[in-house]
Amino acid sequence: MLEIFTYLADVLVYNLAGLDPSLKIADALHFFIEDTTKIFALLLLMIYLIALVRASLRVEQIRQWLGGRNRGAGYLLGSFSGAVTPFCSCSSIPLFLGFTSAGIPIGITMSFLLTSPLINEVAVVLLGTLLGWKFTLLYIIVGMAVGILGGAVLDLIRAERLLQPFAAKAYLRADQAGVTAEPLRLTLFERHQFALGELRDIFTRVWKWVIIGVGLGAALHGFVPEGWFEQHLGQGQWWSVPAAVVLGIPLYSNATGVIPVMESLITKGLPIGTTLAFCMSTVAASFPEFILLKQVMQWRLLAVLFALLLAAFTLVGWTFNLLAPFIL
Amino acid sequence: MKTFKVLGSGCSKCQKTASFIEKVAADMGVEVRVIKETDPMVIMQYGVMSTPAVVADEKLVHSGSIPLRGAIEGWLAA
């Protein structure tokens, strides 16, 4: 069914524009048209369908659901709900305080907040389209593992001591019994309206990232010679992974922008672990997000969190470079 | 005069919410004062977890999205 987009790109690039398929520019343009049309079509469909399902879901319900869980299940559920909840980084502080003041451990809250930007329906569509379901599954498992382990470590070092005083006080005074939330009852038409609103909202937010991401990917695809990365970085030098992670920090992007680039990097021979590490660092470790978190966390906790993420992504990179021959 | 507070960390949706309320009020010929509240401590006190949220005369009336026109008209008429 998806061949229709290859065909569309064939017609536009080779027939209508009359470009010679052996030209680099034709290759890049074909890649760009095929991928953007395919991604846009799938995004429209997926965002709408998922919004239809989660129309009645409220963060207050998730808070109630997570409250009073034992730690082990809490990290898993925190990470899972982070993956399925729509999330805008500008809500991260109210959400953090809302969870904290309901007595949910900082680690479980952070499992939610770390997983949320890494995994969402847009990321899944892009990964599935560009890199296949095996890689998508891998990405989801790794993303959740980073969230779960990150949260567990933060509780292990008792991160609540390093919150800003007002947030720490809210956590100590928490009254879990006082928190209840009723699910909304919606008609099908109300769900449809919600889904249309979400579609408009998410699509206007991500379409330019898709264009930029696929554009960069197309440029890499057309102009970087086959195997270039393999020759220069692909021999598994151990330092290439931490280097990719550090490089990813100032490059602040969401998953939408970076995933199309990942595809090109991998097909050009950059090892899979290095690529994953770079991608996750770009998405999850960013200065704007840290500046927001400064409102509720002391510098020491931010530094710990930062180091934790860098270590986690580096480990992800090394592990997958080692495992690569067995999984792809 | 009615007082609205728009709660949120200053993201674009919060700004849009604030100016939308002002616009609807102007269309209806109602005088309003719209305050943008960005202090996380204050937002927490209203019990809000998803922004933008709207407080009308000290009562929380909305949270999590840019409100619909109909809802704003309702708050202004109340």
Describe this structure in a few short sentences.
Chain A is 75% helix and 0% strand.
List keywords for this structure.
heterodimer, A: 328 residues, mainly alpha, 75% helix, globular, B: 78 residues, alpha+beta, Glutaredoxin, four-stranded mixed sheet, 27% strand
Q: What would your notes on this structure say?
A:
The complex is a heterodimer of chains A (328) and B (78). With 328 residues, chain A is mainly α. Chain A is built from 15 helices and no strands. Chain A is globular. Chain B is an alpha+beta fold. Chain B has a single domain (2-77), classed as Glutaredoxin, CATH 3.40.30. In chain B, a hairpin with a 2-residue loop joins strand 3 and strand 4. In chain B, helix 1 (12-28) packs across helix 3. The longest helix of chain B is centred in the N-terminal third of the chain and has 17 residues, at 12-28.
CATH class of chain B: Alpha Beta
Assembly level: heterodimer
**What's the helix-strand series of chain B?**
EHEHEEH
- What is the CA-based Rg of chain A, rounded? 21 Å
**Stretches of chain B where pLDDT falls below 50 for ≥5 residues?**
none
Major sheet description of chain A: none
If strands are numbered along the chain, what order do they take across the biggest sheet of chain B? Answer: 2-1-3-4
Order of helices and strands of chain A: HHHHHHHHHHHHHHH
User: What percent of the residues of chain B sit in helical stretches (DSSP H or I)?
Assistant: 40-55%
Mean pLDDT reading of chain B: 87
Q: In percent, how helical is the residue content of chain A?
A: over 70%
| CATH superfamily annotation of chain B | Glutaredoxin
